């Protein structure tokens, strides 16, 4: 897999409480009171499908997370990290002059396993200003634009919803999943990693589209499409 340099401040803690008024959430590991072994009392390990509120990671995406991280279980997500809360933050921030992006969730491997940190984010995009993708990306036939690489994937979709741009306007959104670590070359199968990242990004994008009430789920398919465009 990858050689990882973690950016998590505290290994093994649950995610921190959200900073009031901040729509771009950071992750500062913390938890409840600690036992003698240094593990917070509220520390919990869960399956991939239970992460990020429980309705963001499909069964296929959970399998993809194992391809990416090498683990089938993960640190439980903090209560502030869910599709519901991210969709609310997005709705409030949409068309704001300052806030065009935010966190959806952070995914960590459990204690005593190789450290791995995935960051899942949303952002408002201008489809006319996206430019050409870097050479490491493969373009997939999914949504308005899907790019996947061996360390990240981005799914862009159009959302017609009164929670975003209003029922008469299409808002353009992107959900991204990125390995949050110092860049190194992957030792595993690059194509398998690309498919895995695209599968996870699709799962979160579809969940976000549903939560926002996007017309026809933002044009996203029920299952990830991994065929190159």
In helices, the fraction of residues equals 10-25%
Provide the succession of SSEs. EHEHEEEEEEH
Residue stretches low in confidence (pLDDT < 50, at least 5 long) are 1-33
Shape by Cα distribution: globular
Largest sheet: 6 strands, antiparallel
What is the SS-derived class? alpha+beta
Distance between the termini: 27 Å
Overall mean pLDDT: 83
The order of strands across the largest sheet is 3-4-8-7-6-5
Number of strands: 8
Strand proportion: 15-25%
Q: State Rg.
A: 17 Å
The tally of helices reads 3
Could you please describe the fold and organization of this structure?
By secondary structure, this protein is an alpha+beta fold. It contains 3 helices and 8 strands, in the order E-H-E-H-E-E-E-E-E-E-H. The chain has helices at 59-69, 83-93, 190-212; strands at 45-47, 73-75, 101-108, 117-124, 138-140, 145-148, 152-161, 166-179. A 6-stranded antiparallel sheet has the order 3-4-8-7-6-5. It has a two-stranded antiparallel ribbon with strand order 1-2. A hairpin with a 4-residue loop joins strand 5 (138-140) and strand 6. The radius of gyration is 17 Å and the shape is globular.
Short recap of the structure:
The protein is an alpha+beta fold and 229 residues long.
Topology:
Elements: E1 45-47, H1 59-69, E2 73-75, H2 83-93, E3 101-108, E4 117-124, E5 138-140, E6 145-148, E7 152-161, E8 166-179, H3 190-212
Antiparallel strand pairs: 1-2, 3-4, 4-8, 5-6, 6-7, 7-8
Helix pairs in contact: 1-3, 2-3
């Amino acid at each position: 897999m990858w050689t990882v340099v973690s950016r998590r401040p505290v290994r093994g803690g649950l995610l921190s409480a959200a900073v009031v008024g901040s729509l771009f959430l950071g992750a500062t590991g913390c938890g409840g009171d600690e036992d003698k072994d240094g593990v917070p009392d509220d520390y919990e390990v869960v399956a991939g499908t239970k992460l990020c509120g429980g309705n963001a990671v499909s069964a296929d995406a959970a399998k993809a997370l194992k391809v990416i991280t090498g683990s089938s279980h993960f640190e439980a997500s903090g209560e502030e990290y869910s599709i519901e809360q991210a969709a609310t933050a997005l709705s409030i921030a949409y068309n704001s002059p300052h806030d065009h992006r935010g966190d959806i969730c952070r995914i960590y491997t459990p204690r005593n396993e190789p450290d791995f940190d995935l960051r899942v984010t949303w952002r408002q995009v201008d489809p006319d200003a996206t430019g050409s993708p870097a050479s490491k990306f493969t373009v997939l036939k999914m949504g308005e634009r899907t790019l996947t690489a061996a360390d990240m994937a981005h799914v862009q979709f159009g959302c017609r919803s009164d929670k975003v741009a209003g029922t008469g306007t299409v808002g353009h959104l992107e959900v991204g999943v990125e390995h949050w670590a110092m860049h190194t070359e992957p030792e595993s199968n690059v194509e398998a990693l690309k498919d895995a990242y695209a599968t996870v990004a699709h799962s979160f994008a579809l969940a976000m589209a549903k939560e926002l009430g996007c017309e026809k789920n933002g044009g996203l398919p029920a299952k990830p499409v991994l065929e190159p465009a």
